[in-house]
Amino acid sequence: LLTLEEKKVPYKLHLINLADKPKWFTEVNPEGKVPVVKFDDKWVSDSDVLVGILEEKYAEPCLQTPPEFASVGSKIFGSFVTFLKSKDPSDGSEQALLNELKALDDHLKAHGPYIAGEKVTAADLSLAPKLYHLKVAL
């Protein structure tokens, strides 16, 4: 959704109640995952694939993340999930999450304001919702 917005691609949004998925949705997307987008009569539900297709079809603005910055922040969500599931306050999961967040903060201070510098890239658009979930949950 953020990629569509950033590229100013018109789209029609259908919100899905994941607790009561409509029949049409499960017919086109048996795994029931969101997001799912229809491109030229083909339904695609993998976010990375969706972003790749959008980048190919709508080259401007280019949102490709330079390879040297592609993994920035990539461990934050996994560390967050581990921390949330942890039942042992001394298992190091909280510190691991704090370390990942500090590494992102240090990176942004050195290279920012965005992951790859002055412009938003796919890495920023991928990380933003994860950071939002982290903020809400914590």
Task: Describe this protein's structure.
GO terms for molecular function: glutathione dehydrogenase (ascorbate) activity; glutathione transferase activity. Residues 1-62 form the GST N-terminal domain. Its EC number is 2.5.1.18. The mean pLDDT is 94. With 138 residues, the chain is mainly alpha-helical. Helix 4 runs antiparallel to helix 5. It folds into two domains: 1-57, Glutaredoxin (3-Layer(aba) Sandwich); 67-137, Up-down Bundle (Glutathione S-transferase Yfyf (Class Pi), Chain A, domain 2), CATH 1.20.1050. It has six helices and two strands, in the order ααββαααα. A hairpin with a 2-residue loop joins strand 1 (37-39) and strand 2. The chain has helices at 2-7, 23-28, 47-57, 76-85, 93-111, 122-137; strands spanning 37-39, 42-44. It has a two-stranded antiparallel sheet with strand order 1-2. The radius of gyration is 17 Å and the shape is flat.
